[in-house]
């Protein structure tokens, strides 16, 4: 097992839409294992393949409820309901977090790392992880989920910090 370097805000790979996974095999399982290790080392609760520079639609997560870590391949949110405000951070934008309102519940489909079809009903924190990681696979960072003024302030903070490089990660809120 080994860990990846987590790509930070400003890296163009974070703006790319990742490609569908066409084969779930031993190589993909190794990637997932290394991503899990990278996520725990950060530490974070979720990590998308694009965050380690890999162009594949896959993310790993552990919501701390005891059944993690888990891997989702080719995830799709098929339904979302309600609204929920949550203080959200990102491992690719370390040390910063914002209250972001997103749907409270989502239904997610995809595949596990053995190739079994998944259909998961998620609420609150788990739903937030799914939406955040899926955004990464679509090349969207949480900054784009901020209102205009908050985003302006955030961009100024990032500029003042030299585009976040060298800033220590926050405490466990990273996704
Ligand atoms: Zn993130």
Keywords:
single chain, 175 residues, alpha+beta, Peptide Deformylase, five-stranded antiparallel sheet, two-stranded antiparallel sheet, 3 helices, globular, binds zinc ion
Order of helices and strands: HEEEEEEEHH
Q: Give a quick account of the main beta sheet: strands, pairing sense, barrel closure.
A: 5 strands, antiparallel
The CATH superfamily appears as Peptide deformylase
Return residue spans where pLDDT drops below 50 for at least 5 consecutive residues: 166-172
- Our estimate of the beta-strand percent is 25-35%
Radius of gyration: 15 Å
Distance between the termini: 21 Å
Could you tell me the number of beta strands? 7
Structural class category: alpha+beta
Helix content bin? 10-25%
Can you characterise this structure?
The strands form two sheets. The chain has a five-stranded antiparallel beta sheet with strand order 1-2-3-6-7. The chain has a two-stranded antiparallel ribbon with strand order 4-5. The chain is an alpha+beta fold. The chain has one domain (12-165): Peptide deformylase (Peptide Deformylase). The protein has three helices and seven strands; from the N terminus they run αβββββββαα. A hairpin with a 5-residue loop joins β6 (105-111) and β7 (117-123). Zinc ion binds at residues 90-92, 132, 136, 175.
């Amino acid at each position: 097992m080994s860990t990846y370097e987590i790509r930070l805000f400003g890296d163009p790979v974070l703006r790319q839409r990742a490609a569908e996974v066409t084969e779930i095999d031993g190589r993909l399982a190794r990637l997932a294992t290394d991503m899990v290790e990278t996520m725990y080392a950060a530490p974070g609760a979720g990590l998308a393949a694009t965050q380690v520079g890999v162009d594949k639609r896959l993310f790993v997560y552990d919501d701390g409820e005891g059944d993690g870590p888990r891997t989702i391949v080719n995830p799709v949110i098929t339904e979302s309901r309600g609204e929920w405000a949550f203080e959200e951070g990102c491992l690719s934008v370390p040390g910063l977090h914002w209250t972001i309102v997103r749907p409270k519940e989502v239904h997610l489909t995809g595949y596990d790392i053995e190739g079994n079809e998944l259909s998961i009903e998620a609420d609150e924190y788990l739903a937030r992880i799914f939406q955040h990681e899926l955004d990464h696979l679509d090349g969207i960072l949480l900054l784009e989920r901020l209102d205009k003024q908050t985003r302006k302030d955030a961009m100024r903070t990032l500029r003042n910090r030299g585009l976040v490089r060298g800033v220590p990660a926050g405490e466990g809120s990273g996704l």
